[in-house]
Design brief:
The chain is mostly helical and about 270 residues long. The protein is about 65% helix and about 0% strand. α3 runs parallel beside α9.
């Protein structure tokens, strides 16, 4: 799903041309999308850190899952029969590895704020210059940033998809969150954000996610990549749909239907 969305941003959004990406860049981004959640245990970084999980201890509480995913991917690709980069030169492999590490680490939500700050600065420059211009100096850094934004955007792209697809992903993601929240309660740990099945209004949570995370990022990225307008349009339409369902989902929450999540919500 993430790889497909990255491909849409590359092609439909025009990132290939705007960022002047070559074949190695494109391969890095797409393969990065494929492996970005490799071996995911179904818990958040915060949970793994709070429970002193071996993964968190291994990566010193820094981008725990993201480091785990990309390390696992390269270990896998180093096994016989999975050496997909075997025909690359040493320099080409260094480039792909660097790009893939950057892409997967960019999916850590802890890095979202810094990306938004950088995007806002680019928006000011676009306003003054009238359009986005790829810098002549620091080109590699700019390309890395744009590839990182692309995969991060793709990683939170469920709200930018048609509603029937988005709704199903919503239930699957929250089911995972609620399972974590149940474990946190049994362990006496603080219940993570959106993980308390007794307290979450599904519709309100989605409106908040769109307004707080997705819409600001997508609308700014649209200034650089006008081709993603259809994704922004989906965000607006989906937000209206969830807003119209907040009372319905509040009634479901009060009726304790979140206890039988997600099956009770699909009725």
């Amino acid at each position: 799903d993430i790889t497909l969305t990255c491909h849409q941003i590359l092609k439909n959004g025009g990132l290939i041309n705007v960022a002047q990406l070559d074949e190695l860049d494109i391969a890095s981004l797409l393969i990065g999308g494929l492996v970005h959640d490799l071996g995911h245990p179904g818990y958040t970084n915060g949970f793994l850190i709070n429970t002193q999980d071996d993964i968190a201890l291994t990566y010193n509480d820094e981008s725990v899952l993201e480091n785990f995913h990309i390390a696992s991917a390269f270990k896998l690709m180093n096994t016989p029969g999975a050496e997909i980069f075997a025909n690359l030169s040493r320099e080409e492999f260094r480039t792909v590895r660097k790009n893939m590490i950057n892409c997967v680490l960019s999916t850590d939500m802890a890095r979202h704020r810094s990306k938004m700050i950088t995007l806002k600065a680019k928006m000011e420059k676009i306003k003054s210059e009238g359009q986005y211009n790829l810098p002549t100096e620091g080109l590699d850094e700019e390309q890395s940033f744009l590839m990182g934004v692309c995969i991060h955007t793709a990683d939170v792209s469920n709200p930018a998809k048609p509603y029937n697809v988005y709704e199903q992903w919503t239930y699957l993601v929250l089911d995972e969150f609620f399972n974590q929240g149940d474990i946190e309660k049994t362990k006496g740990l603080p219940v993570s954000f959106l993980c308390d099945r007794e307290g979450v209004n599904v519709a309100t949570a989605q409106v908040g996610f769109i307004n707080g995370i997705c819409m600001p990022m997508y609308t700014m990225l649209q200034e650089i990549l006008p081709g993603i307008k259809y994704m922004v349009d989906n965000l607006k339409s989906n937000r209206e749909t969830w807003e119209s369902r907040t009372e319905e989902f509040e009634a479901r929450r009060l009726a304790k239907q979140n206890r039988n999540f997600p099956n009770a919500l699909r009725d």
